[in-house]
Amino acid sequence: MVKTSSSTEKTPLKKGAWSPEEDRKLTAYIKRYKIWNWTEMSKAAGLARTGKSCRLRWVNYLRPDIKRGNFSKEEEDTIITLHETLGNRWSAIAAKLPSGRTDNEVKNYWHTHLKKRLKADSTSSTSVIPELQEAGDEASWKNLSESDVLASPEPAKSISKIDDSKNTVVSPQQPITSSTGPANFEIGKDQKIVNEGINIDKTSSHETFIEELQSLWSQQGDFFYPPPDDQLIGPSTNSPIWQYDFYKEFDDCYDWVHYMDKTFGNS
DNA sequence: AAATATGGCAACCGCCCGTTT
DNA sequence: AAAACGGGCGGTTGCCATATT
């Protein structure tokens, strides 16, 4: 059972089936800190897994918005139709399904059911009775106790800092740079966060800082909040900037506030 | 009842691509 | 410019449950 000892020497990375404890750790970590870097998250959450393994587990199984249960006749037909035009592009097919299936599930379902159905197409007029479709792990996401979430370890200090040399804030949740943050967001050498002519003094009081930051990040002109997927969309790129639900209520952002407290010395 | 075959699916692997250093 | 890195994708494997012999 010797594994590669190429670069890192620490605990050997685990493979294979996920234990309930690992699931709980990953879910709790993501619930508290969101997704920012799979490799670092894995370490920070205390998981002896590769980032890829964590991502796979989350995307295909733990995510609260995935759907499980039997495929409906409509879903089957849609998959077959899409497969005619898209081929084995399972992620593209899954994305076009309204039901929230993962590409892995679509792929598995194709190989185990639909290939056969296509073969026996002429004779088969059997319809699959749609079962009640339940969200994948939504229950365990919602029911995760506060203590479980809070038990998720604190982020490493090394990733909770301002990197002045690179002009970025590196938060426990997600690196924020001039490209990922609001337009023209940057940390100036003059100890200010600058955005569209609005300066926030890093040395201002805690309350003032938070208020200004909140005001800055809620400007409708800079970006907006589309309801569908809880993501903050930039006006120019039309691509997600960061997850909206982390910022929509500062009550939820005690980690961020705590980080700001430590960073700016307002406690 | 035990042994073997088959099916279903979670998870891994290799490759690729875009971004960063 | 190129190496390194992170993440996404599709093919495939391997484990476990069920069916069949």
UniProtKB/TrEMBL annotation:
<dbReference type="GO" id="GO:0003677">
    <property type="term" value="F:DNA binding"/>
</dbReference>
<dbReference type="InterPro" id="IPR009057">
    <property type="entry name" value="Homeodomain-like_sf"/>
</dbReference>
<dbReference type="GO" id="GO:0005634">
    <property type="term" value="C:nucleus"/>
</dbReference>
<keyword id="KW-0539">Nucleus</keyword>
<keyword id="KW-0805">Transcription regulation</keyword>
<dbReference type="InterPro" id="IPR017930">
    <property type="entry name" value="Myb_dom"/>
</dbReference>
<keyword id="KW-0804">Transcription</keyword>
<keyword id="KW-0238">DNA-binding</keyword>
<protein>
    <submittedName>
        <fullName>Myb-related protein Myb4</fullName>
    </submittedName>
</protein>
<feature type="compositionally biased region" description="Polar residues">
    <location>
        <begin position="167"/>
        <end position="182"/>
    </location>
</feature>
<feature type="domain" description="HTH myb-type">
    <location>
        <begin position="10"/>
        <end position="62"/>
    </location>
</feature>
<feature type="region of interest" description="Disordered">
    <location>
        <begin position="165"/>
        <end position="184"/>
    </location>
</feature>
<keyword id="KW-0677">Repeat</keyword>
<feature type="domain" description="Myb-like">
    <location>
        <begin position="10"/>
        <end position="62"/>
    </location>
</feature>
<feature type="domain" description="Myb-like">
    <location>
        <begin position="63"/>
        <end position="114"/>
    </location>
</feature>
<dbReference type="InterPro" id="IPR051953">
    <property type="entry name" value="Plant_SW-associated_TFs"/>
</dbReference>
<dbReference type="Pfam" id="PF00249">
    <property type="entry name" value="Myb_DNA-binding"/>
</dbReference>
<dbReference type="InterPro" id="IPR001005">
    <property type="entry name" value="SANT/Myb"/>
</dbReference>
<feature type="domain" description="HTH myb-type">
    <location>
        <begin position="63"/>
        <end position="118"/>
    </location>
</feature>
